[in-house]
């Protein structure tokens, strides 16, 4: 079950299956995609209910798969949708994130952990691996060396080690405060900065789009910029 709460400029999306450590069935993936991409708020906080962030794919669903490749592509599509959402998406990792839960966090723009967070890719212990885009995003986020060791060992890291690896950017008591502080920023700036930082095109094209985005923001906010200078 996926719950959404809108509070002004912040949407909170909660994976609410605490009895299953917020493990995701195919229907949950679809609901999560709709909740994130359908947000009007400039910032979305993705979190889990209870003592876990997300345990990944529900193992009952994985066991009964008729088409494993289609299941993997389903998760990839949802992770891609989270990554490309217009809103800035913050993963608030409180408790356990495993497998697909880590992959969803990697698709978010920002990952913050509480001191209780633990993260792991245990797929190799089950004869599987994360296939919701994790093999692409993980080395991009933490570097190839950390990505290989983390994934091939199947071990679990705590919040402090995740911070040292670069898997999360901050350790905080309340991820909601981080998301809310981002929502206080200029909304158009958030969208354009996300677009530019997420751009995977060639360097020259990226620089052109960066300049165009700066010009768009300058034209829209020139009066506020001038007023700020005079303070």
TrEMBL record:
InterPro entries: ClpP/crotonase-like_dom_sf, Enoyl-CoA_hyd/isom_CS, Enoyl-CoA_hydra/iso
Gene Ontology MF term list: enoyl-CoA hydratase activity
Record-linked CDD domains: crotonase-like (cd06558)
PROSITE patterns: ENOYL_COA_HYDRATASE
Alphabetical keyword list: Lyase
Keyword NAD attached: no
EC number: 4.2.1.17
Protein family: Belongs to the enoyl-CoA hydratase/isomerase family.
Protein's name in the database: Enoyl-CoA hydratase
Organism the protein comes from: Haloferax volcanii (strain ATCC 29605 / DSM 3757 / JCM 8879 / NBRC 14742 / NCIMB 2012 / VKM B-1768 / DS2)
Gene: fadA3
């Amino acid at each position: 079950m996926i719950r959404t709460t809108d509070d002004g400029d912040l949407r909170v999306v909660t994976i609410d299956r605490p009895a299953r450590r917020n493990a995701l069935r195919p229907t949950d993936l679809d609901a999560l995609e709709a909740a994130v991409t359908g947000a009007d708020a400039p910032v979305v906080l993705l979190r889990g209910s209870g003592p876990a962030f997300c345990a990944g794919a529900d193992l009952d669903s994985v066991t009964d798969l008729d088409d494993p490749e289609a299941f993997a592509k389903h998760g990839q599509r949802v992770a891609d949708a989270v990554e490309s959402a217009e809103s800035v998406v913050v993963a608030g990792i409180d408790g356990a994130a495993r497998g697909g839960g880590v992959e969803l966090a990697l698709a978010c723009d920002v990952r913050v952990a509480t001191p209780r967070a633990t993260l792991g890719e245990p797929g190799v212990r089950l004869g599987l691996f994360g296939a919701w885009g994790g093999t692409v995003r993980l080395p991009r986020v933490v570097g190839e060396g950390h990505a290989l060791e983390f994934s091939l060992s199947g071990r679990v890291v705590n919040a402090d080690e995740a911070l040292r690896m670069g898997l999360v950017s901050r350790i905080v008591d309340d991820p909601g405060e981080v998301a809310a502080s981002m929502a206080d920023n200029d909304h158009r700036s958030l969208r354009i900065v996300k677009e530019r930082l997420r751009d995977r095109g060639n360097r020259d094209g990226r620089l052109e789009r960066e300049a165009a985005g700066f010009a768009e923001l300058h034209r829209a906010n020139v009066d506020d910029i001038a007023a700020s200078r005079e303070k």
